[in-house]
Amino acid sequence: MELIAALLLLLFLSVGFAGAALADGMLPALISGQARPSWRRPIAEAARLLQTQPIRTEAPDALLWFLAPALYLALAIIGLAVIPFGPGLVTIPSEVGIVVWGSCEALTIVAVFMFGWSANAPLPLIGAYRYVAIALPAMLISMFVLIGAALPAESLGFTEIVEAQRTVWNVVRQPAGLILFLMLGLAISLRGPFDYADPADLAGGTTADVSGPALLAWKIARLAMLVSVSAVTATAFLGGYLGPILPGFVWFLLKTALVLVVLVAAGNLFARVPPARMMGVIWTMLLPLSFLMLLAVGLELLLWG
Amino acid sequence: MGLTDLLFFALSAVAIVSGWRVFATDSMVRASFLLLLSFVAVGLIIVMLAAPYIGVATIFMMTVEMMVMALFMVMFMMNPAGLNPMMMVHQHRFSIVAGVLAFAGLTVAILFTSFPGIPVDPAAPVVHDLGIELLGPSMLIFETAGVTLLATMIGSVILSSRSGRFGLADQGSRPPGLEPDGEPAGRQPEQGGGGHHHHHH
């Protein structure tokens, strides 16, 4: 069963990655009213990056710089590995799935920091530091809403969390939790309003001094993490593989695709606020909101569970 | 020697070598990440010991902790981003003696302890049992330790951040003058603005 799940993971990641690349390339054009944007753009961009000359900065930490994209991609795959694709279809069955996913979130922050820090150049470094400052509290929030998703299941495993949603999906229990988790999704896939690592205001930030195949590897890892976080959102809040008529894997794929499109659209529709303001919003509004959601779920289960 | 043994020895080697490199590297950030690697290897060994929650939680907590540590070290030590080479060890003679004593003590403890050899039943609900223990009989201990640690962290930040880069932190930030003891550079904040108390002249 685990072997089938591992093969499905490869299939899911490939399909999801292709979909993410298409959505990322085409949605901005669709949103701006272009009727038929070209689906070839991501492929052309990848081909261009493969041919671009790689550059070096002065005295970088070459090893960490080289390893950071690989770590980022590996974390996306590990995150997918603890998620059930269907009843009993999970690559690494873990009874502490959300803690494994939490570690992937935390290590993603380390990977992004490593990538910016090891370039030994100003803009990547600024991107790396301010990303850590924003992403660490965003990760805290996501863990609180995930605990809210684990409470009804009385388990930290994703399979149990999905099974506990047979009666009611977690998005109904904590609607704000879903939105908070989507924000984390934007943060760890370095996207739109939560992209403090490599946005345009820092001339590329952590990627400012990266070019060629290394930049392509980083972009691939980002899209893989987007697929991974979409899958986790679909599992923890939208009932994962649960659904009528169609097989579980298809439902899981559809829900993941929906979340992915929402994330890409949100990344294009919402603007990034200055980091200091975002920091205030996260610590004084969003974090208390996640506490409230957790309290609400706890009270609901205590009174009516 | 089975696959489990090989994995155990490999992880132990990673933990020991990266732990040693923490003290051999010349950068605070690299030292933090090497320590993190060491902890990840130890966490995976704990997972192998049939304690999945403790193992994975070790990896999770240590990742966050090392990241925060790297951030704070650079903030307080004013070493531009931790990229400047610096000596990572100090008080050599004292640390050598302490290290030898700790090694001897731990070795003696390991050699003279009879470790239990009871394999954990794979069906045992270890995570559930741990949760009952943590939030049941041991709750007071863990909560006390948690609140104490939090108070220590806040206290140490307050104590160490009073003498800021541009003067005392509780007197508002004051950029350096354009000439020695001269007017501070940049735009002067309005009286009472920004929540600071300015006593400039």
Radius of gyration of chain A: 19 Å
Largest interface: A-B, 24 and 22 residues
Biggest beta sheet summary of chain B: 2 strands, antiparallel
Structural class of chain A: mainly alpha
- SSE string of chain B, helix = H, strand = E? HHHHHHEE
Distance between the termini of chain A: 33 Å
Number of helices of chain B: 6
Task: Work out the number of β strands of chain A.
Answer: 0
Low-confidence stretches of chain B: 193-201
What is Rg of chain B?
A: 24 Å
The largest sheet of chain A is: none
SS-based class of chain B: mainly alpha
The number of helical segments of chain A is: 11
What percent of residues of chain A adopt helix (DSSP H or I)?
A: over 70%
Taking the alpha carbons of the first and last residues of chain B, their distance comes to 76 Å
Beta strand count of chain B? 2
Percent of residues in helices of chain B = 55-70%
**Total tally of structural domains of chain A:** 1
Outline of chain B, from the CA principal axes? elongated
Give your account of this protein's structure.
Chain A: Keywords: Membrane, NAD, Transmembrane, Transmembrane helix. Chain A: Belongs to the complex I subunit 1 family. Chain A: The chain crosses the membrane at residues 62-86, 98-119, 131-151, 171-190, 220-242, 249-270, 282-304. Chain A: GO terms for molecular function: NADH dehydrogenase activity. The complex is a heterodimer of chains A (305) and B (201). With 305 residues, chain A is mainly α. Chain A has eleven helices and no strands. With 201 residues, chain B is mostly helical. Among the domains of chain B are: 1-92; 126-170. Chain B is 60% helix and 2% strand. Chain B has helices at residues 3-24, 28-48, 52-77, 92-112, 126-134, 139-160; strands spanning 163-164, 167-168. In chain B, strands 1-2 form a two-stranded antiparallel sheet. Chain B is elongated. The interface between A and B is medium-sized, with 24 and 22 residues.
